[in-house]
């Protein structure tokens, strides 16, 4: 008789998720911690939320005075970043929309972005990475058998928007990151530090003799310089708004002819293939569990709907999966057998190779290591010039 896997009675996290624990009521630590740590943000008193938003907007406008733009909005074509752009423009800000093209954009995402920037009258800056260089880096990550192949996209996107902020003298990057749809963190073993430039370089050299030319790698030291010295802020803008993903999607569809994707982050062909096929088949990871559990814990989706969303493969259909497999094989110059062999090989950890994860963790916790008196002086100084 097949043994039943325990599933949280509030969200859809199950006992197979690394680190999952359940209390006497059957609630998991993932959603319990989420509720404890984010309620004051997601369910903030409306008048206070409005006050915080007005203060942020005033700071952004003050910093951008006399400049062509006053903020950067990184846009992928997904709902979260698209909604940021809409709201930022509505609030009277002057954003530069920034997109990073790694060669895997879906036609749907391209159309969504074009309709959005055209409809809003916003300037769009697109950084295009040389495809052969990016493909070689992806191949190196596949050959290394590490889990976070998407580290390449995420790191490059960070590099592009931080460099644009530096170039334009802007301090505010308003992003689609938010607690309401992303507040439950992925298990540590499912992802890797996104500022690990050293890991990217090491894997590229060891497995493909790749030298970075157009890839805008961004490391821990650069982040610390921008954050502590240049005072550039990566701001989760949607946390300042009463954000509901489904309401936002309806508005985007109505006003900008926006076409939705079946799952989170599926605006990229590779991302949907990675999340919908590679992760489950090679690593036994289903990110839908965390994504849907966050929406349930935030009150935006019923548990029943989330359970239904986990039924079947993480693809709209078996045919859609086959089409993406064919597209992936052709674009990466793989045979079907190469894909089979890759999926069969065991995983290797990112930290088996050179990494700056510990360096980033040290730099990120640097303020806690500074004496209280000096910290207060630094804080007051930063407040006075922001």
What this model shows, in words?
With 386 residues, this protein is mainly alpha-helical. It has a domain at 45-269 and 353-369: HUPs (Rossmann fold, 3-Layer(aba) Sandwich). The protein is 53% helix and 6% strand. The chain is built from 17 helices and five strands. The strands form two sheets. The protein has a three-stranded parallel beta sheet with strand order 1-2-3, with helices on both faces. A two-stranded parallel ribbon has the order 4-5. The radius of gyration is 21 Å and the shape is globular.
The largest sheet has its strands arranged as 1-2-3
Question: Which sequence of SSEs, written as H and E, runs from N to C?
Answer: HHEHEHEHHEHHHEHHHHHHHH
As a percent range, the share of strand residues is 5-15%
Spatial gap, N to C terminus: 63 Å
What are the low-pLDDT stretches, counting only 5+ consecutive residues below 50? 381-385
* Helix content, binned percent: 40-55%
CATH topology of the domain at 45-269 and 353-369: Rossmann fold
CATH architecture of the domain at 45-269 and 353-369: 3-Layer(aba) Sandwich
Q: Identify the overall geometry.
A: globular
CATH class descriptor name of the domain at 45-269 and 353-369: Alpha Beta
What is the rounded Rg?
21 Å
How would a crystallographer describe the biggest sheet? 3 strands, parallel
Strand segment count: 5
Which terms would index this structure?
three-stranded parallel sheet; Rossmann fold; two-stranded parallel sheet; 53% helix; 386 residues; 5 strands; 6% strand; mainly alpha
